[in-house]
Amino acid sequence: MIxxxxxxxxxxxxxxxxxxxxxxxxxxxxxxxxxxxxxxxxFLTVCAALLTLILAGSALAQASKRHEQAVQQKPFGTHxxxxxxxxxxxxxxxxxxxxxxxxxxxxxxxxxxxxGQFADIVLGHESLEGYVPNPPYLGAIVGRYANRIANGxxxxxxxxxxxxxxxxxxxxxxxxxKTFNKVVWDGEPLKGKPGVTFTxxxxxxxxxxxxxxxxxxxxxxxNDNELVIDYExxxxxxxxxxxxxxxxxxxxxxxxxxxxxxELTLNAxxxxxxxxxxxxxxxxxxxxxxPLDFTSSTRVGxxxxxxxxxxxxxxGYDHNWVINRKGDGLMLAARMYEPTSGRVLEVSxxxxxxxxxxxxxxxxxVTGKKGHVYKRRYGFCLETQHFPDSPNHPDFPSSxxxxxxxxxxxxxxxxxxx
Length: 418
Ligand code: GLA
What we know:
The chain is α+β, with helices and mostly antiparallel strands. The chain has four helices and 29 strands. It has a nine-stranded antiparallel beta sheet, with no helix packed on it. A five-stranded antiparallel beta sheet has the order 1-2-3-4-5. Strand 25 (366-367) and strand 26 (373-374) form a beta hairpin. Helix 1 packs across helix 3 (40-70). The longest helix has 31 residues, at 40-70. It starts with 5 loop residues before the first helix and ends with a strand. The model is unreliable at 1-38 and 63-68 (pLDDT under 50). Alpha-D-galactopyranose binds next to strand 24 and strand 27.
């Protein structure tokens, strides 16, 4: 579309000549004869309009080509007889995110290091089979309630609900059967930008949860190298809800080793200490003087094996930090830096908490991409969330969604280098 038609080239030269004060087209052609009666000023206006149209047309054609490439879809097997699609989102910088409608799983994130070398920085598998089952919840959307519910029970509006237990005495990440990490969602690519929306109806009574809950999760990749995650949900009965993204990152590249040399800053002065079952005690404790103080950038491995009771109980870091916030908008929650590659991940969120989990339960039993064995602490998660077990802690920010309300949360993973 760079080359314009002969007529328009001619008009261009007429425009140039007019501008130079000659007032005649460079070549004779039909365009001239129809326009020859016009005053130079009118003619200039027509030419300028034509040029604008040509340029706009060309820009539109290029943009639509880019948008066609912005989301690519490829079949990724079937589950429960339903097709699974892998959506690849690509931005103008060549950053790519692969996500699928099984579990809303993010399978890959390919970003450059400080020298421009791309690497996949999330743990995962090359085929769908690897994700079924997926005990560590690699890359998945977790819900209906991310993290733990003590003793698999809570009371709401005078009624006690019982959930399946899958973590000692607790319910972890929603339960057992129809948890959001292992159901088939409907996928719909966004029009005109690299993004995909996954929707799912969690039925009243599924895994013991109340209400038909319609959930919508959208991943959008921006040209600022941000992966934006928008969560939305509505219900027809009051229900607890807590949605999070369970990607395991290794900013040096997945499978390259442990994440202990990464350097972390958390925008959090307090955390929620846990008991021996990793259930919050209800206290909001200051991080000051503890190994959970990441208010200034600190190497993850520096205190991860300290004798501090919370570290011992968590087998490392597996805690919810209370994000310092002003208002309820997007706040920076975390910044992680990996010194060899220079990659930086910043996490911002509208949620009140973030679970920093250092992959303490990865034990080499999962073999992922390229035959990489995922050993202890080979990845970290920054799971933005409501506080664990909130339905049993009336003092924590409420996680109850009522009919007529819309649950909306946003988390942004921003990738850069330094
Ligand atoms: C969360 C929990 C961890 C662990 C992982 C999944 O991060 O807090 O304790 O259960 O999920 O393995």
